[in-house]
């Protein structure tokens, strides 16, 4: 029996589900034993994987989020998943994978480098009881609506109309940019080469951040984060905050944790009135196979990929979490079953709708920036600085842009001579 | 005591009581919060008197952070580091103080200067050495051409590798080198009168006999003091285990688990459980210090820089 | 005093010191030399190779306003934490040294913070200072938003510093008390005969006489605030909000391990090392030369 | 005038009584030395006078004031400590002037006073040095200057010379004495060195185990020790003391059946258990066959250069004699001693007190070997 | 038989010569004391014999074996250290038996031997105590027992009594001597206390600054000091030494123009810069007007109990005399001294060596004030 490791970046409830999955895999066959290790979050997993790789102690499989894609692509440390599966005799219909996923995790020629696994997009959660109480029925679709509802809620004595987490740059910035078709970086968000420069200090996000600030100052946005000791999700499920934005992956968690008697629903991220909504970005992570392992271990990894790609397995995963089915056929099957038409899963189909709202544009197929984690951190800091320290929006974003470009230049220099696959 | 001035005595007691409050308040809050129920702990203002949920909170914290095996790991690491440090420190100090060889001061300084290279500042490269502790030797062999020589002669490639990640050895070994311990032992050994060495020489005993039969028994107090300090500091290690154990389940230590106990990672702000967990984690070194206080203080005093 | 009683033996001393020397070379000097090397190169995060870039890593950190902000913050942190901790410990030690009845009890409790792991204290203090829970929660209830370390950098830094200072009380207390108790009793008595009252004796006699200890602790505390603050910050604020609690050691960890900038982090390591060495050096020069009376 | 009065002064630490009730009066301007073995309570007594130690019971008065409840600074005493207790971080001038500074004396006045005192003990050239840069003798002088500058009513010294080497000690003794002669301040000086005590004291207080054994002039204490303890303690080599009793047959019985003829011994001593003492320098060697001589056998000889000590055995009792003869004398050889009865001291074995010998003893050697 | 032979033994530390070339032979069974001031190299010499210090040049032989290159344990010496150097963590029995244990002697035999030795120094009741629970004298005895138990060929003592109080020191002296008498083992004893040296030694080695000044019996050294250094060093109070020269007018000139008549002085000394010495106990007080008496003025008096020391000034030279008279005498009063020329010592000021006075001097007081 061959043992191999799988490191992932999920914790809490999602981590427990992965452990279930690993158990099932181990039970399903006798040749391999997968050891699944949680590294808490995506950043830590990327960091630990790198450290382990440098130490020649890497796992066979690492779950790397969207933001780490370029870091992996240039690392020279992975085995393309297609090659892996082919070599091990698995025939996968790569065309079946959802196009948004492919555009993020595949080469420019469309070859998937990593195994799509848990994919998502950002959603807007809202407490229907509260909204009703201030006379709003249905889903908020525009930020104008959100602002009004928030005001009404405040007036009605709700402390926290909208939960805002400045470390949630993914939903508040990346996804905002995508659905409003705003560039994050030049070179088509970096797809055109490592010499891309960030552009978030121009365009709509500048105003958006200004709006966040206004909302925050009026007490309509309330900061809920790890640092405050009450995360946005916690605040939402406990009805302390009435609206919140986060991944569709949390749909399962919210359903389970929402306090007794609370009614809530989910919507696509709002847009500003008059905006032509674009498709949102694929989030979540894919599974990368790392170099330097034995053929046996690769066999095991391939078997594992095949296992999670099985329709019933994929369906189970989507059910217990909130992640979207990553293949078109999987999605169709679930729709056909009526999965999305009933609570508690109703609403999750909006994620797919959001992802496929339009065909991907130059700025909505994904982000290809090296050391993107560091750039994200800059945005988090900029948002915090504007909110908490009253730094002028433009100045904060310019500052963040300068630093981000330094990060990108350093990355470019470090990989001088290399190009994106 | 010279002055009988009651006013000054009152000032003295008042200050000390204030100090006591200052020192004890955090402990008190940890205990109180650790004994509250979830509702009680979420109340504002906080109750300042313990409730009766301590045991159940301890239990929840214990299972949530998987403290059982982590305790054992911490214990293994702390004891291992402590024993290792004391041994190495005693041996090195013995060598430096009781033998007269040219390089002894150089050796002492080599060891002593490491005081100025705390783990935190050399964390990045230290991690890589932990991945292969024999790396320096490999590099030496490579640069000397020995690898090449052996390879051409025998066809075998010399690949020295000793991985310390995710192992007790890795958690312990890099922490075992100790400038403080060596320094402390050296200071103590220097107070051993020359005559005692000479008496034992006249009695016919050699250096090792002297070390085991005279020096070690005499340094018992120091050893206990050192052991206390070392135990506390190794139990309380945070960054190093955090870095070199990717396999937390098997090699994690309790202190690393603290972060896992902080609410917001698990949903509800159950600070009561967090505090109960913190209590468990604080307790062992606190007990050691409280029990060893006498020696501990004496040992530190004799250090006197 | 130099010793004169030595053993003569060729290999034994080397055998005795070898284990420690090897550990020191492998785990201290080798990594340090590596850091030194990296500081002059651009190292690929996945270890695929590196290129020599001379001083550019240093130039880029020195040219970075945020780095200097971190340096300034570290200095402030170090001075504040050291100051608070030492003043409290010294005051307690001075009074404990009077050895009134029951002092022993106080004394043993004052040492306790020494035993606490920084992250554990961090967790406790985080709760104590949590804006919506614990004790501060009630103050916030009265004046909403008056205290919020999650959004206010100043509050966050203050919280970390207070915790760090608290942790140092035990260690500083022991040393101060030891130093005070090592002062000959007759000096205090001579002071009393000369007519000095207790408080005046503290200022005129005890304080100057324990100057070596004060200085030793000052340096040890400064060094510890520069290096040991990691666990505390990681548990309490992770450097936030907006880097307002990011000190040098935390930044180099963040840049190196989180930012995957091994080279920049190595350069920062070197700077921090030099700082610590400089402090230690100052201590040796100063303590030996200035504050020592035989 | 009485400068210091101790009445039934007792000191008890937790459970141990250390000073058992001392009554002494010290006259104004007197130089009194407290002498006694280590641990007998000398320092404790001195420190109670200084106010550094609480008085368990009894009273201490300085001048006419009972000082029991006064702080040290209010008693007008100055003290010189055994280890000098100089402030190591202050210069000599600052050390001397500290008391004045504390008292709030203006700087100029203070400086002048410090200078004057420093001159009087020849410390002028060292005023800017730290104590660490001074020799032992100089430090000692700083300690003295520091005491003098306050112009105290009483000087207290606690073994101030015990850290000095022999030569310096002798020199400092002379200095202290001349200082006292010059200032005339009442002084109490503690020591366990009898030579120091003898040479310095106007009056001696001999203490033993917390009790005052004798108070008196040095010559009185030497010539008429009031107790066995004093007899044994004062004088070097120590007084020969032989335990036994005066039998009514005219013999003094002692040792292993030894009998010494003492025909005219006072009847008041008869049959009492006593110790009889005679100082070694009062034991004379006499030629063999001298009438009334005591016959002894040499144990060993100690050469002292100018003279020698003969340690001899008299029927199991040890007798030491100072001898300045030069003849060859060795272990096992017979010697013969005599002494004047005037030099005889008798002490009760019960309470160790001196017993007075009724007059009328023969004036010369009268102890005859049985 | 010669037990220890030192030939041109030198010791140099880095750049300082500490022992300058010592040649001494110590006879078997002899008790030799090395006496000299602090820092003169006594300990160094002793430690070279013990093997604790390397010999820079020269040879040391014990018996017939040159031991220069032998380890301490191979030399058959046992040593008693100044601070006893007992193993604080071992009981008395273990301390005494440690050397035997190291030598691998079986337990039973060892115990028997330890017991025997312990008995011989009356330590039996204390065998189970730790050194910390013993008095100074008992510790000293343990140190001695530890040395004895190995039955060494040579005993070495390095100021073994200097940590004891005066009384105990005297007692221990007697004990060491009786021990030596009993065992007859060659002993070398280092001290800087002359009384100790005088009373213990068969022969004295007087050292100064790394050089042997004189080797001889105590009485020889006292009565005929070979050098100025020895003359000044030996004897307490120290010999009166007056620098000056014998003029051919029959006067010895000294001090502030002082002149002493010395009519029959040997011509070999004329006009040389010399020091003239006479011991205080050889200076007699004579009545005023005695012919040939020296007139002096009392500086001060030190009472010693049995006698007193008169410190007096003779034309700017200080003279000390031992006086046993009892008359009132105080500073500034005139006194008159005389002494026998036989008691006179003369030393060259150039090299400090003793100069022999040609015979034929007058037998009595012959120094007359000018
Ligand atoms: N603080 C104390 N607690 C208990 N006992 C004490 C204390 N201080 C002194 N003693 C005891 O009191 C006795 C007298 O002590 P003191 O210092 O007066 O002796 P001393 O005559 O000055 O001796 P020395 O010549 O050694 O200085 C000693 O037996 C000592 O052990
Ligand atoms: N290890 C050493 N290095 C340099 N000089 C030394 C060393 N040991 C001793 N000396 C010097 O050698 C000289 C003789 O020292 P030694 O110990 O023999 O003196 P001593 O006669 O025994 O004196 P004391 O009576 O003080 O013990 C001293 O001046 C001392 O300073
Ligand atoms: O929370 P997830 O798994 O949907 O992922 C969110 C983002 O993609 C993180 O980069
Ligand atoms: Mg005393
Ligand atoms: Mg010596």
UniProtKB/TrEMBL annotation, chain B:
Question: What keywords are assigned to this protein?
Answer: Cell inner membrane, Cell membrane, Membrane, Transmembrane, Transmembrane helix, Transport
Q: Which residues form the ABC transmembrane type-1 domain?
A: 71-292
User: Which GO BP annotation is one of this protein's?
Assistant: transmembrane transport
What InterPro entries does the record point to?
Answer: MetI-like, MetI-like_sf
Q: Subcellular location, in the record's words?
A: Cell inner membrane; Cell membrane
Q: Where are the transmembrane segments?
A: 7-31, 75-99, 106-124, 168-189, 210-232, 275-297
Q: Name one GO cellular component term.
A: plasma membrane
Which Pfam families does this chain map to? BPD_transp_1 (PF00528)
User: Known Gene3D superfamilies for this protein?
Assistant: MetI-like (1.10.3720.10)
Q: How does it sit in the membrane?
A: Multi-pass membrane protein
Biological role stated in the UniProt entry: Part of the ABC transporter complex UgpBAEC involved in sn-glycerol-3-phosphate (G3P) import. Probably responsible for the translocation of the substrate across the membrane.
Family per UniProt?
Belongs to the binding-protein-dependent transport system permease family.
User: Assembly and partners?
Assistant: The complex is composed of two ATP-binding proteins (UgpC), two transmembrane proteins (UgpA and UgpE) and a solute-binding protein (UgpB).
- What protein name is recorded for this chain? sn-glycerol-3-phosphate transport system permease protein UgpE
Lineage of producing organism: Bacteria, Pseudomonadati, Pseudomonadota, Alphaproteobacteria, Hyphomicrobiales
TrEMBL record, chain C:
Q: Where in the cell is it found?
A: Cell inner membrane; Cell membrane
Its main localization is membrane
Q: Assembly and partners?
A: The complex is composed of two ATP-binding proteins (UgpC), two transmembrane proteins (UgpA and UgpE) and a solute-binding protein (UgpB).
Source organism per entry reads Devosia epidermidihirudinis
Role, per record: Part of the ABC transporter complex UgpBAEC involved in sn-glycerol-3-phosphate (G3P) import. Probably responsible for the translocation of the substrate across the membrane.
Family that this chain belongs to: Belongs to the binding-protein-dependent transport system permease family.
Membrane topology is: Multi-pass membrane protein
Keywords linked to the UniProt accession: Cell inner membrane, Cell membrane, Membrane, Transmembrane, Transmembrane helix, Transport
CC terms in the record's Gene Ontology section: plasma membrane
* Protein's name according to its UniProt entry: sn-glycerol-3-phosphate transport system permease protein UgpA
Q: Which Pfam family, an example, fits this chain?
A: BPD_transp_1
Membrane-traversing stretches:
12-30, 75-96, 108-129, 156-180, 207-226, 265-287
Per the database record, which ranges form the ABC transmembrane type-1 domain? Answer: 71-283
Please name the PANTHER family in this protein's record.
BLL4140 PROTEIN, SN-GLYCEROL-3-PHOSPHATE TRANSPORT SYSTEM PERMEASE PROTEIN UGPA
Asked if the record carries the keyword Transmembrane helix, the reply is yes
Q: Which GO terms describe its biological process?
A: transmembrane transport
TrEMBL record, chains D, E:
What cellular component GO annotations does this protein have?
ATP-binding cassette (ABC) transporter complex, substrate-binding subunit-containing
Classification via PROSITE patterns? ABC_TRANSPORTER_1, ABC_TRANSPORTER_2
The primary site where this protein sits is: membrane
Q: Where in the cell is it found?
A: Cell inner membrane
Q: Name one Pfam family in it.
A: TOBE_2
Q: How does it sit in the membrane?
A: Peripheral membrane protein
In its UniProt entry, the species of origin is given as Devosia epidermidihirudinis
Gene3D superfamilies the record matches: 2.40.50.100, Nucleic acid-binding proteins (2.40.50.140), P-loop containing nucleotide triphosphate hydrolases (3.40.50.300)
What's the family? Belongs to the ABC transporter superfamily.
For this UniProt entry, the molecular function terms from Gene Ontology, in alphabetical order, are: ABC-type transporter activity; ATP binding; ATP hydrolysis activity
Segments forming domain ABC transporter: 4-234
**What name does the UniProt record give this protein?**
Glycerol-3-phosphate ABC transporter ATP-binding protein
One GO-annotated biological process of the protein: carbohydrate transport
Mitochondrion is among the record's keywords: no
Keywords (alphabetical) are: ATP-binding, Nucleotide-binding, Transport
């Amino acid at each position: 029996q061959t043992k191999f490791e799988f490191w992932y970046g999920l914790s809490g409830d999602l981590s427990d589900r992965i452990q279930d999955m690993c158990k099932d895999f181990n039970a399903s066959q006798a040749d391999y034993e997968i050891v699944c290790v949680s590294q808490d979050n995506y950043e830590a997993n990327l960091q630990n994987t790198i450290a382990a790789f440098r130490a020649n102690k890497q796992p066979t499989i690492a779950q790397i989020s969207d933001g780490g894609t370029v870091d992996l692509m240039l690392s020279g440390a992975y085995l393309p998943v297609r090659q892996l599966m082919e070599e091990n005799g698995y025939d996968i219909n790569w065309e079946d994978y959802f196009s948004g996923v492919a555009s993020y995790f595949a080469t420019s020629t469309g070859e998937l480098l990593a195994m799509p696994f848990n994919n998502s997009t950002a959603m807007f959660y809202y407490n229907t009881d509260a909204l009703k109480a201030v006379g709003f029925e249905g889903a908020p679709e525009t930020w104008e609506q959100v602002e009004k509802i928030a005001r009404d809620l405040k007036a009605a004595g709700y402390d926290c109309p909208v939960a805002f987490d400045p470390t949630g740059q993914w939903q508040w910035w990346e996804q905002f940019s995508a659905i409003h078709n705003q560039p994050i970086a030049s070179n088509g968000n970096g797809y055109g080469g490592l010499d891309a420069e960030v552009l978030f200090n121009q365009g709509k996000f500048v105003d958006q951040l200004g709006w966040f600030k206004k909302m925050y100052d009026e007490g309509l946005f309330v900061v809920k984060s790890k640092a405050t000791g009450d995360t946005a999700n916690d605040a939402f499920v406990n009805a302390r905050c009435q609206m919140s934005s986060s991944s569709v992956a949390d749909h399962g968690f919210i359903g389970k944790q929402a306090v007794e008697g609370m009614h809530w629903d989910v919507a696509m991220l709002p847009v500003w009135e008059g905006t032509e909504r674009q498709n949102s970005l694929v989030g979540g992570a894919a599974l990368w196979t790392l170099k330097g392992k034995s053929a046996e271990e690769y066999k095991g990894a391939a078997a594992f990929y095949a296992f999670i790609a099985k329709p019933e397995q994929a369906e189970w995963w989507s059910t217990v979490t909130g992640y979207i089915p990553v293949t078109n056929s999987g999605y169709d099957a679930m729709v056909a079953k009526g999965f999305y038409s009933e609570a508690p899963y109703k609403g999750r189909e909006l994620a797919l709708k959001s992802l496929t709202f339009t065909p991907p544009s130059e700025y909505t197929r994904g982000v290809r920036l090296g050391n993107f984690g560091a750039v994200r951190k800059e945005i988090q800091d900029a948002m915090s600085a504007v909110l908490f320290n009253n730094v002028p929006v433009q100045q904060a974003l310019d500052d963040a842009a300068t630093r981000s470009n330094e990060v990108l230049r350093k990355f470019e220099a470090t990989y001088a001579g290399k190009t994106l696959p | 005591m010279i002055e009988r001035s009651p006013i000054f005595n009152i000032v003295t007691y008042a200050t000390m009581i204030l100090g006591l409050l200052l020192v004890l308040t955090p402990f008190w809050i940890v205990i109180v919060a650790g004994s509250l129920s979830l509702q009680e702990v979420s109340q504002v203002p906080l109750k300042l008197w313990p409730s009766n949920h301590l045991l159940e909170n301890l239990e929840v914290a214990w299972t949530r952070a998987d403290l059982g095996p982590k305790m054992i790991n911490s214990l293994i690491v702390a004891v291992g580091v402590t024993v290792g440090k004391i041994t190495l420190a005693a041996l090195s100090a013995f060598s430096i103080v009781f033998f007269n060889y040219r390089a002894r001061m150089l050796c002492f300084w080599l060891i002593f200067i490491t005081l100025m290279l705390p783990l935190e500042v050399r964390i990045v490269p230290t991690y890589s050495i932990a991945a292969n502790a024999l790396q320096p030797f490999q590099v030496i062999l490579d640069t000397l051409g020995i690898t090449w020589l052996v390879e051409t002669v025998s066809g075998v490639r010399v690949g020295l590798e000793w991985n310390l990640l995710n192992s007790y050895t890795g958690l312990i070994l890099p922490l075992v080198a100790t400038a403080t311990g060596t320094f402390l032992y050296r200071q103590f050994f220097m107070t051993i009168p020359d005559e005692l060495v000479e008496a034992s020489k006249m009695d016919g005993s050699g250096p090792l006999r002297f070390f085991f039969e005279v020096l070690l028994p005499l340094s018992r107090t120091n050893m206990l003091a050192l052991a206390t300090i070392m135990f506390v500091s190794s139990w309380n290690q945070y960054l190093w285990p955090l870095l070199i154990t990717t396999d937390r389940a098997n090699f994690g230590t309790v202190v690393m688990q603290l972060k896992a106990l902080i609410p917001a990672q698990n949903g509800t702000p159950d600070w009561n459980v967090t505090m109960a967990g913190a209590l468990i984690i604080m307790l062992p070194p606190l007990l050691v210090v409280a029990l060893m206080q006498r020696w501990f203080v004496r040992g530190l005093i004799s250090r006197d820089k | 005093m130099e010793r004169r009683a030595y053993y003569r033996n060729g290999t034994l001393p080397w055998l005795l010191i070898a284990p420690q020397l090897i550990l020191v070379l492998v785990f201290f000097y080798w990594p340090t030399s590596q850091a030194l090397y990296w500081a002059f190169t651009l190292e690929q995060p996945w270890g695929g190779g590196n290129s020599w870039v001379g001083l550019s890593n240093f130039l880029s950190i020195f040219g970075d306003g945020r780095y200097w902000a971190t340096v300034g913050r570290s200095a402030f942190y170090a001075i504040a934490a050291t100051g608070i901790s030492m003043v409290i410990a010294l005051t307690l030690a001075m009074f404990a040294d009077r050895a009134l009845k029951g002092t022993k009890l106080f004394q043993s409790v004052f040492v306790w913070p020494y035993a606490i792991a920084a992250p554990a204290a961090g967790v406790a203090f985080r709760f104590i200072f949590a804006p919506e829970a614990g004790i501060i929660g009630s103050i916030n209830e009265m004046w909403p938003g008056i205290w919020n370390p999650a959004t206010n950098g100043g509050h966050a830094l203050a919280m970390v510093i207070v915790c760090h200072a608290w942790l140092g009380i035990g260690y500083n207390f022991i040393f101060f008390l030891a130093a005070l108790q090592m002062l000959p009793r007759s000096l205090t008595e001579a002071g009393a005969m000369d007519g000095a009252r207790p408080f005046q004796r503290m200022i005129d006699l005890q304080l100057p006489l324990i100057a070596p200890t004060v200085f030793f602790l000052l340096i040890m505390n400064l060094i510890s605030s520069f290096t040991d603050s990691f666990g505390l910050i990681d548990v309490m604020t992770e450097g936030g909000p907006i880097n307002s609690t990011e000190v040098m050691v935390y930044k180099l960890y963040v840049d190196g391990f989180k930012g995957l900038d091994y080279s920049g982090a190595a350069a920062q390591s070197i700077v921090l090392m030099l700082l610590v060495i400089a402090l230690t050096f100052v201590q040796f020069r100063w303590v030996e030369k200035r504050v020592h009376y035989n | 005038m009485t400068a210091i009065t101790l009445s039934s002064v007792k000191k008890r630490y937790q459970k141990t009584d250390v000073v058992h009730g001392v009554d002494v009066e010290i006259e104004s301007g007197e130089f009194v030395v407290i002498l006694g073995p280590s641990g007998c309570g000398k320092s404790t007594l001195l420190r109670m006078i200084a106010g550094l130690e609480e008085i368990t019971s009894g009273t201490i008065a300085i001048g006419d004031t009972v000082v029991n409840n006064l702080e040290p600074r209010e008693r007008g005493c100055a003290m010189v400590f055994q280890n000098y207790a100089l402030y190591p971080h202050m210069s000599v001038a600052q050390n001397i002037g500290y008391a004045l500074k504390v008292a709030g004396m203006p700087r100029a006045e203070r400086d002048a006073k410090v200078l004057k005192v420093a001159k009087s003990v020849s410390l002028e050239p060292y005023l800017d040095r730290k104590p660490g840069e001074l020799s032992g003798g100089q430090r000692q002088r700083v300690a003295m200057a520091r005491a003098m500058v306050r112009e105290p009513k009483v000087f207290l010294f606690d073994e101030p010379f015990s850290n000095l080497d022999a030569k310096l000690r002798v020199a400092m003794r002379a200095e202290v004495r001349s200082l006292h002669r010059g200032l005339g301040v009442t002084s109490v000086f503690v020591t366990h060195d009898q030579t120091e005590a003898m040479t310095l004291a106007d009056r001696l207080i001999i203490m033993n185990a917390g009790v005052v054994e004798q108070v008196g002039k040095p010559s009185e204490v030497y010539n008429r020790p009031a107790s066995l303890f004093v007899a044994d303690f004062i004088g070097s080599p120590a007084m020969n003391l032989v335990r036994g009793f005066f039998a009514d047959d005219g013999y003094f019985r002692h040792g292993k059946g030894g009998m010494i003829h003492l025909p005219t011994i006072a009847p008041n001593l008869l049959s009492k258990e006593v110790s009889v003492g005679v100082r070694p320098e009062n034991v004379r060697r006499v030629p063999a066959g001298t009438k009334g001589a005591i016959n002894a056998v040499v144990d060993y000889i100690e050469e002292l250069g100018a003279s020698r000590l003969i340690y001899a055995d008299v029927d199991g009792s040890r007798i030491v004699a100072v001898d300045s003869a030069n003849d060859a004398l060795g272990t096992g050889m017979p010697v013969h001693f005599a002494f004047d009865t005037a030099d005889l001291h008798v002490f009760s074995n019960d309470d160790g007190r001196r017993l007075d010998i009724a007059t009328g003893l023969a004036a010369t050697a009268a102890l005859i070997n049985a």
